[in-house]
Amino acid sequence: MIDINIRKNKQDWPLQVKVIGHAGSGPYGYDVMCASVSTLCLNFLNSLEVLADYQPNYQLNQKDGGYLLIDLSAMDKLVKKETARILYDSFQLGLSQLGADSPEFVRTVIRSQD
Question: In total, how many domains does the chain have?
Answer without folding.
Answer: 1
